[in-house]
Every structure is written in structure tokens, then in C-alpha cells.
Design a protein that fits this description.
The structure is a single chain. The chain is elongated, with a radius of gyration of 21 Å. The strands form three sheets. A three-stranded antiparallel sheet has the order 2-1-3. 34% of the residues lie in helices and 17% in strands. It is of the alpha+beta class.
Amino acid sequence: MKNTFLFSRLMILGVICFASSGAAADLVKQSTSGLCHPPQSSWYERTLNYIPFKTLEACLDAGGRLPSGVSLSGARKLAGELSENRNQYQRSAFGHGWDDADRDCQDSRAEALISTSTTPVRFADGKRCRVVTGRWISPFTGEVIQNAANIEIDHVVPLALAWERGAWRWSDERREQFANDPVNLLPVEGSLNSSTITI
């Protein structure tokens, strides 16, 4: 069971990384009408059928043309600015701490602990906000952890990786939702959360 759980989490990581990379974060899309849409084009997200190019110049060299309102010099300048933004990752861009989107006093950390415990959890008090004990099995080591204080919530897809792969373009709201998405949250031993795992 431990290996199946870990495998499923790694598969999620692979799918999300592939999908979020867009096969290269700054892909230029040549639409079926021959327009070359760089990421800053207002039609970029809406262009679903396209031929991918690594650069705007490559798309133009292949016979494409610029959409109305996009100049080559303007696209180059904005591409430089976007590239600079992409390299300026900060954890705070994904919100400050764990969110309680449904306002039930259980933030996304508590909800991750509740949903992954193999036994009913115990709360700090009758308000049922903060989890103190439960039974969690580490997907990495197989160790049983019963004290919630010894658990950190890891992101299956690290926030820094998501940023690098395109989250720097997202709205603040979308980044915060991603950082608190239960599918992307994994309770692990606190000692492992800051470790580097090579696969």
C-alpha cells in the first residue's frame, strides 16, 4: 500500500509538471490561421489548436505573422520582463500560510491531516480546529507518526517548481488555491520536508 500511494503521488507530480511546463514555459503558438501568439498575446490562452515554436522568430521564419497589436520589438521587450519575473520566486506569492477557504476553522493543513489519518484524529479543543494526534504512515519511510506536531505538509509539486513552470503568470488567487489544493498536499515527517530526494 505504501508503494502504491507513493507511486500515485509521483504520477501526479509527473502529470502536473508536464502539463504546467507547456512543453516549454515560453512556448509560442502558431494558430491555424498562421498567427504567432507569444505568451503576452491576448489570444494566447484561447489558442488551443496550434503548432508550437520555441521562439517568436522561429514562428515568423516558418511563415507565421504577428497578431494585431503585437510588435516584434514589443514582444521581445515583454519577453525579457516576463523572464525576469519568472526568476523572482517568493513563497509569499502563493499566499501567507494555510488557507481556510470554507471558513470552518480547519485550514488546509488540518484538512490534509484529517483526510490522510488512518484513525480518527483528536483535536486540541472542542472547536475542532487544530489537529493534535492521529495516525499517519509516511509514504517515504513507512514510519507511523501519531503526533501532528511532528508532521509538515509538503507540496507534491513544489511551489518554486510551479513558479518556474508558469505559476508566475497566474493571479494571486490562483496561486493561493494551488498552494492549498488538497491534491497537492502530502503530510510527511518534518525532518524529510526540507530534505532533497533524488529520483
